[in-house]
């Protein structure tokens, strides 16, 4: 009789440990997965923000080109460079394409603003000045949102790469995200050069 | 085999962490902490005390009325940092504006670089667009070139007019109720004193004496004393409520998206 009781108690204890163990593992897995999901959501959100700012810049460009054309009719090469770069940007699909198009667009805008410096009437025009402010502001917003993206992506990547969560990451299919690298030749804000 | 795998993973993880921190240190800009005034931080020491007080009191009032923070900072130099990166880093670090409404603005002036920037928080994005900021800077650029103090004040005033609207009076304009109340209290006190003496002497005349000996008068005397004390008390309350200072102002965790405008002078 005593032996049976001992065996029962032992069995119950083992079952208890087993269930608590399962509970802990499941809890940990669930919370880790949720952590991945929320980190990834932040990354996606910041990526979307970049897209919004890029679109904003894209929308401002036609007005800018038209305004400058009104005063500087013969600077065709500059206008076509900007327009072509803008089209490239809109058609870009892969991150590499986007990065290259973006650099080209920033550079061509810089050249446009540099050329505008030669036309004092243009420089006094309120529409032109407003557009210049808005584009400069948008370029800055693009830079800021890219930095934010890199920050969120780094956080996510750290989570995904650290042990022991990296094992779970593999299981759930969370992979490392590539950070955004600025095109080295492009400047953040179109800087007006006098060359 | 498993043991080796674990070690590699641990080394890899540590390395990633170190690289992560190294990158952060490499990018980190050395930023000063805000002064206890919070709204005006004249590190370059180019602002007059009048301008500083003007900014301090106007921004405090603006915070009370609109729950938005407008901060002015001057630095001697940006130390090779880009104006835009430095400015937004400062605005975010100091958390200018409330974390829910993000209504914060930072005006940063660099003395040696001769650059100025207005950084606009998310909460002002719709109302204070880049073009408006650019215009404010352009209007003030000549003044800034000649007189940094006047120029900074000009930028600030134009900004406050823009976001406060016609309803919001800047501090050196009339619209302050304070003096009126002070005069009320003074007038009342004077009347009370005059009335007291008048009654005292008129009674004295009746008694053909210098001072009234009439005991009934004593109640009247006490009444006047009580009235004067109360009036004085009321006056001190009114004037102290004007000088009401919040406990040290600080940022509310507001966030910035990069909107605003920069300019040279």
What's a quick, concise take on this entry?
The complex is a heterodimer of chains A (195) and B (265). With 195 residues, chain A is mainly α. Chain A has six helices and no strands.
Task: Give a structural overview.
The complex is a heterodimer of chains A (195) and B (265). Chain A is mostly helical. Chain A has helices at residues 2-71, 76-91, 95-116, 120-124, 126-161, 165-172. In chain A, helix 1 (2-71) runs antiparallel to helix 2 (76-91) and helix 1 (2-71) packs antiparallel against helix 5 (126-161). The termini of chain A are far apart. Chain B is α/β, with parallel strands linked by helices and 265 residues long. Chain B has seven helices and five strands; from the N terminus they run αβαβαββααααβ. Chain B has helices spanning 2-27, 49-66, 83-94, 130-146, 148-164, 178-207, 216-242, and strands spanning 40-42, 69-75, 104-110, 115-121, 256-264. In chain B, strands 1-2-3-4-5 form a five-stranded mixed beta sheet, sandwiched between helices. Mean pLDDT of chain B is 81; it is low at 22-26 and 174-178. The interface between A and B is medium-sized, with 24 and 26 residues.
Descriptive labels:
heterodimer; A: 195 residues; 6 helices; rod-shaped; B: 265 residues; alpha/beta; five-stranded mixed sheet
Strand residue percentage of chain A? under 5%
Fraction in helix of chain B: 55-70%
Mass-distribution shape of chain A: rod-shaped
Which band does the percent of strand residues of chain B land in?
A: 5-15%
| Quaternary structure state of the chains depicted | heterodimer
Distance between the termini of chain B: 67 Å
How are the elements arranged and paired?
The complex is a heterodimer of chains A (195) and B (265).
Chain A: H1 2-71, H2 76-91, H3 95-116, H4 120-124, H5 126-161, H6 165-172
Helix pairs in contact in A: 1-2, 1-5, 1-6, 2-3
Chain B: H1 2-27, E1 40-42, H2 49-66, E2 69-75, H3 83-94, E3 104-110, E4 115-121, H4 130-146, H5 148-164, H6 178-207, H7 216-242, E5 256-264
Parallel strand pairs in B: 1-2, 2-3
Antiparallel strand pairs in B: 3-4, 4-5
Helix pairs in contact in B: 2-5, 4-5, 6-7
């Amino acid at each position: 009789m005593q032996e049976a009781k001992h065996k029962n108690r032992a069995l119950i204890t083992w079952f208890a440990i087993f269930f608590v163990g399962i509970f802990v593992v499941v809890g940990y897995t669930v919370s880790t997965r949720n952590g991945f999901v929320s980190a990834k959501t932040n990354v996606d959100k910041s990526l979307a923000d970049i897209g919004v700012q890029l679109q904003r810049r894209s929308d401002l460009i036609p007005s800018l080109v038209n305004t400058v054309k009104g005063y500087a009719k013969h600077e065709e090469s500059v206008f076509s460079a900007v327009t072509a770069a803008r089209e490239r940007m809109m058609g870009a699909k892969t991150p590499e394409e986007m990065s290259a198009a973006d650099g080209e667009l920033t550079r061509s805008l810089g050249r446009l603003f540099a050329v505008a410096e030669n036309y004092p009437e243009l420089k006094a025009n309120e529409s032109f000045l407003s557009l210049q402010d808005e584009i400069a502001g948008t370029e800055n917003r693009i830079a800021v949102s890219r930095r934010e993206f890199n920050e969120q992506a780094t956080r996510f990547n750290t989570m995904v790469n650290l042990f022991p969560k990296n094992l779970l990451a593999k299981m759930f299919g969370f992979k490392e995200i590539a950070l955004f690298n600025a095109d080295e030749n492009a400047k953040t804000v179109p800087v007006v050069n006098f060359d | 085999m498993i043991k080796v795998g674990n070690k590699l993973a641990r080394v890899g993880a540590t390395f990633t962490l170190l690289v992560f921190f190294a990158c952060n240190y490499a990018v980190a800009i050395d930023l000063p902490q805000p002064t206890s005034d919070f709204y005006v931080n004249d590190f370059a020491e180019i602002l007059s005390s009048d301008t500083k007080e003007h900014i301090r009191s106007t921004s405090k009032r603006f915070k009370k009325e609109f729950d938005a923070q407008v901060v002015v900072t001057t630095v001697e130099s940006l130390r090779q940092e880009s104006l835009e990166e430095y400015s937004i880093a400062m605005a975010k670090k100091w958390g200018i504006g409330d974390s829910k409404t993000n209504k914060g603005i930072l005006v940063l002036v660099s003395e040696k670089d001769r650059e100025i920037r207005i950084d606009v928080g998310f909460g002002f994005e719709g109302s204070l667009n880049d073009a408006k900021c650019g215009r404010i800077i352009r209007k003030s650029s000549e003044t800034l070139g000649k007189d940094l103090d006047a120029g900074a004040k000009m930028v600030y005033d134009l900004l406050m007019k823009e976001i406060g609207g016609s309803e919001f009076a800047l501090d050196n304009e009339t619209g302050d109720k304070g003096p009126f109340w002070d005069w009320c209290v003074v007038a009342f006190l004077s009347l009370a004193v005059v009335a007291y003496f008048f009654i005292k002497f008129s009674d004295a005349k009746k008694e053909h004496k210098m001072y009234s000996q009439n005991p009934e008068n004593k109640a009247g005397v006490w009444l006047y004393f009580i009235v004067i004390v109360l009036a004085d008390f009321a006056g001190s309350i009114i004037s102290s409520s004007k000088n009401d200072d919040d406990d040290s102002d600080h940022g509310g965790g507001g966030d910035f998206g990069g909107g605003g405008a920069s300019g040279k002078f």
